[in-house]
Amino acid sequence: MSVTEHGTPEHPTTGHRCRGTRRGARQVAGIAATVAAGVALTSGGVYAALTAQAFNGTAQQVRTGTLLLTLSPTAGSAGFTSVVGDLAPGDVVNRYVQLQNTGTLPGQGLTLRLADSSPTLLTTSATKGLQVTVNECPVAWTVATGTCTTSAPGVPGTGVPVLAQTPAATLASTSVAPPSLSGPGLAPGATRYFQVSLTLPSATNDDVSVNGVAPTGSVQGLSAGLTWTFATTQRAATTTNS
After folding, report:
1. Residue 97 maps to a domain
2. Does residue 210 belong to any structural domain of this protein?
3. Are 84 and 199 in contact (CB under 8 A)?
4. 22-31 confidence digits (pLDDT tens)
5. Per the count of CB atoms within 10 A, which of 9, 25, 70, 207 is most buried?
6. Residue 127 and residue 131: Cα distance in Å, rounded?
7. CA dist., res. 202 & res. 90, Å (int)
8. Both 77 and 37 in a single domain?
9. d(CA 157, CA 145)
10. CA dist., res. 39 & res. 226, Å (int)
11. Cβ distance 49 to 83 under 8 Å?
12. In terms of domains, do 73 and 34 share one?
């Protein structure tokens, strides 16, 4: 093998000297080191940036309100748990219940909905079926006599009408909004006392049975399983500044 100046070997194929190759490698290595150093300096600068924090020493408490209704019989009444049996056209059956807001938020817009587990003419016919009337007393009703001891002026003993006579079919209809019960909203802890009256209209139920058989379309021998649902909505939303 021939020897070139300064002892630099020639390329075994081309015979060119290899000095440039080594020099290029050293230059690439130098550039890489410079880039690495720059990255290190940049990274060091980011982690060394100033930051500041501040926080409240006492945790702020946030609590949500509740809107809760409870329905129960008025003292001396079985309420809706009592069976209404052998109802005849023209009869009126009164049941006494009370509704209380046990939550912390006021309620407004009280409504009444009815559901029947086995619908018949009693709850599907607006003319032949059950009719519902609701009166309210500011205090608990005297169940034994069906009187309100504290009534609005002009209606002594009868309470205040909050739902005029309405077909059970209307209360049970899901295609219309449930009727509203007039009167005040339910403040937290407040109780409203209701007399719920059921009757069968006599004028549209004067059918005649023949040889022990009731005519087609009669309300005789029918039954209903009623669920009464009172509903209210929360008070209007507010904005508070403090």
Report:
1. yes
2. no
3. no
4. 555 556 555 5
5. 207
6. 9
7. 5
8. no
9. 10
10. 78
11. no
12. no
Regarding whether 114 and 179 lie in a shared domain, the answer is: yes
Tally DSSP H helices, then E strands, for the chain. 3, 7
Question: 196 and 228 in contact (C-beta within 8 Å)?
Answer: yes
8 Å CB contact between 151 and 157: yes
Residue 57 lies in a domain: no
Residue with tokens 């004028």: 203
Q: Read off the CATH number of the domain in which 157 is found.
A: 2.60.40
CA dihedral sign of residues 70, 74, 78, 82: negative
Quick one: 93 and 195 in the same domain? Answer: yes
Strand-by-strand arrangement of the 69-73 sheet: 69-73, 92-101, 191-199, 131-137, 160-167
- For residue range 39-81, list pLDDT tens digits in order: 454 555 556 799 999 999 999 999 999 999 999 999 999 999 9
CA dihedral 12, 14, 19, 22 (to 10 degrees): -70
Q: How far apart are the first and last CA of the chain?
A: 95
Q: Which residue has the tokens 């009669």?
A: 218
Q: Which domain range does residue 99 map to?
A: 69-204+222-234
Of 125-134, 178-187, 201-210, 217-226, which gets the smallest average pLDDT? Answer: 201-210
Tokens of 32: 């890489």
Q: Report residue 103 as tokens.
A: 């939550």
Query: In the chain, how many domains are there?
Result: 2
| Assigned token pair, 216 | 């087609």
The verdict on residue 177 lying in a domain is yes
> Residue 26 is encoded by which pair of tokens?
């050293």
